Amino acid sequence: MSGTFLGMPGGFPANAAVAVQDSQLRYNLRKATHTIRGKRVKAVEELPDWMELRAAGKAIKDHTLRHLDRYLLQMEEAVTRAGGTVHWARDAAEANRIVTDLVKATGEREVVKVKSMATQEIGLNEHLAAEGITAYETDLAELIVQLGEDFPSHFLVPAIHRNRSEIREIFLGKMAEWGRPAPPDLTDDPPALADAARLHLRERFLASKVAVSGGNFMIAETGTLVVLESEGNGRMCLTLPETLISVVGIEKLLPTWRDLEVFLQLLPRSSTAERMNPYTSTWTGSAEGQDFHLVLLDNGRTGVLADEVGRQALRCIRCSACLNVCPVYERTGGHAYGSVYPGPIGAILTPLLRGFDTELDASLPYASSLCGACFDACPVAIDIPEVLVDLRAKVPHGRVERAGMKVAGWVLNNEVRLAKAQRLATRFRKLVPKRLPGPLSAWTDTRDLPDIPEESFRDWWERTRRSERSGRPRNEGGRGVSEER
Amino acid sequence: MRVALFITCVNDTLFPGTGKAVVSLLRRLGCDVDFPAAQTCCGQMHVNTGYRDEGVRLARHFTEVFAGYDAIVAPSGSCAAMVREQYPKLVQPGSRGAAAVAEVAPKVYDLSEFLLDVLKIDDVGAYFPHRVTYHPTCHSLRSLHLGERPTRLLRNVRGLELIPLGGADECCGFGGTFAVKNPAVSAAMCADKVRNVLDTGAEVLCAADNSCLMHIGGTMKRQRTGVRIMHLAEILAATEER
């Protein structure tokens, strides 16, 4: 993955601490995520067989991943038979080099792009720029991000962190550098902003000879690629240019068209909460004289496949339902995750794909309260909390924390030691400060501590048992305890 | 029926009143409750923070201590979920540990499950004349799927006015060590939870998990909101006689 936006030292917690103070960001995210949340629930409830569809989606993906070697070869053969060329890319560097060489071979210096997570993952635009080739994003939100020299913060709505007056400023200030300028009297009225983008992009579509896309699905039996989109920019890019280069992760395969039926129901409802997305484009090989190249991208995926718990992350269809329901994402936005994959799925996918080498990546498995909302919303039933917990067991832990957890484990693993620790706490209960020192100050910065009781439950039980055994009347038996906390 | 109380380490140490309330309530309903004194902690904190080995040791201790009971009742949705949902993932299939987990884990119930599903009681004869709002807590909701059970019990409490909580299914931001590892996000989540609680106008915030209540309650106390926290067991244990 491109190490482009790693944030500040301190990893996710530090990035998040800044993000939660941004009132505009909080407002935008709250509004957007809550709106889409409600809509998604409605769209899903419409289908009585949603849970069966979800189970089918999971089963199809698991089957495909289990036999990925076979289906990849079938895909390669089918694409080749249909006149396309297949390239295999082990990592980001290989994929970038392949695409660059293909573009250079056309003699062109610019490409139009269909919104694609895979090409963001490998940092293709930056690489092409270094080679003197300009990549033009054509999805409206990606255009906003590109013009604003910014980073996407959501799969589906990459400019979710921007509001319309910011977008107006960006269009007025930057559009001219990239092509047709925005009209000088541009307002922040959404239709006016969309019109400006439409005119700006239309010229680009008509002029460009090379397009780069990703793919939502690949169908192995016929070698067909599938892109789902809302704006029609994808359709333009996929059909108009003379050369089309698609960079697709190897996990995007489906064996047959029948399987696609399941995902055409799961994806739009989970993603945009629509019954059907406006544009679904499919193409097979070099249709109508277009030169077609498919770059199959590994970039860590084979390693993820070897991870027995983590491999379920490869089922992901990038719908962003988990982002929209995540209470953490809602407060931090996508940039805090320092990856093109933010939110709950990013918190597992990023470290799975690129390891724990940076402080940020090592902190991502902890960027969750394990509330489980993501798992419930996931249309392919990725148990994100399960993977998070598994990654937490693999990530290196800090020295102080390790020592503390060891001591806690030692005390908790024996009832005599636990009782002694409780009595110690009880004896010094009046001395516990209002603000705790060290890492525990993170608790008392915003919360009061609970009062330590005069007696632990186990000591109460033991004491009242004893008095029962000695024949005295039963203790209050817990009545009236509500006043004691 | 041999019923064991699994108090949980947090309740044992910090909220003994909840344990006493469970004992009082279950005795009132005719159950003889045992407290296996060797019990300690289910290991959730260790497992969920990435210390699986320590967690597995605690899980082993748990299955030894609670073997042989017909029902194990826990006043914590999160700890009950740990045993029932996560223990099976911690053991090697076919091992002795797996057999021990398969024996013990299905007998672990959250209090409201035990009352409704095992004892088949939805009116425990409680009296609590206060305005109460209920936070369902994530693991009760999404791991144990408690659904309407706790609110069914609360609706049958005499004198109690149950006020619906806005955004009830959203996490309060506790998340165990998440609260100290990501304090800024945790506090931001709790700020929204507290706002929703205050919007109800309730005097009491009730939940089936004292860990979440400790977090929300600690924030509400710091802000001097005057709203108090109470575990579900404590409300259900309250009667007109006292």
UniProtKB/TrEMBL annotation, chain A:
Domain named LUD: residues: 74-296
Region (Disordered): 463-485
Alphabetical UniProt keywords: 4Fe-4S, Electron transport, Iron, Iron-sulfur, Metal-binding, Repeat, Transport
InterPro entries: 4Fe4S_Fe-S-bd, 4Fe4S_Fe_S_CS, FTHF_cligase-like_sf, Helical_ferredxn, LUD_dom, LutB/LldF, LutB_C, NagB/RpiA_transferase-like
Domain Lactate utilization protein B C-terminal, residue spans: 396-463
Residue span(s) of domain 4Fe-4S ferredoxin-type: 313-382
Pfam families: Fer4_8 (PF13183), LUD_dom (PF02589), LutB_C (PF11870)
GO biological process terms held by the UniProt record: lactate metabolic process
One GO MF term: 4 iron, 4 sulfur cluster binding
Identification of the protein by name: L-lactate dehydrogenase complex protein LldF
TrEMBL record, chain B:
Domain (Cysteine-rich): residue spans on this chain: 3-83, 132-216
GO cellular component: cytosol
Pfam families in alphabetical order: CCG
GO molecular function ontology, one term from the record: oxidoreductase activity
InterPro entries named in the record: Cys_rich_dom (IPR004017)
Protein known as: L-lactate dehydrogenase complex protein LldE
